[in-house]
């Protein structure tokens, strides 16, 4: 007969040395090791916030549980409903001045939070990029569409204008035979790209010490102004 938790004298041998207890302790240690995340480096605050705030952790668990319950079929149905729901958020119109800078015609750019280009204004003020702010993050980020051939110069105008020193690439230039992003940075060490005859981007070196990250050191020069920045390709997002 099973015992009632909290009643009766504890069995010293069962509690300390039984195979079942040892196995459970090992499982707990493994789980603790799996969720251990470094607090330094490039790991964003948002990634570690769940381990500091129980409410956030509970919300993540709820999301994961509901997602598993829906399954692939349920997620597809939910996506179809959301896609068919009119979005009233003001968006940048796709017209003769912006059409060549949209990779996907059904992925709009929210007008209120978009990055407005003011550097070299004769080349237009539009880039498919938006400011992203969150209470969970110390810094403000820019989420940008993977540059097209026609928008690569705009991308580097934005980098220079906003003094951005870290670029995180979350996709490949090509995935499953389809173009996802133009090769907007010089790929090989010593290679340079020049935009508008004014902005010079140079590859200063590539390191792949981390199995998940390829880091490229870049310099961006505009006349006498010099910027040193890092470009990260996060392999784990598409492996």
UniProtKB/TrEMBL annotation:
Listed SMART domains: PTPc
MF terms in GO: protein tyrosine phosphatase activity
Top-rank taxon: Eukaryota
Name of the protein described by the UniProt record: Tyrosine-protein phosphatase domain-containing protein
Disordered: annotated span: 1-39
Record InterPro entries: Oocyte-zygote_transition_reg (IPR052782), Prot-tyrosine_phosphatase-like (IPR029021), PTP_cat (IPR000242)
Species whose genome carries this gene: Panagrolaimus superbus
One Pfam family matching this protein: Y_phosphatase
Bias (Low complexity) ranges: 25-34
Residues in Tyrosine-protein phosphatase domain copies: 75-221
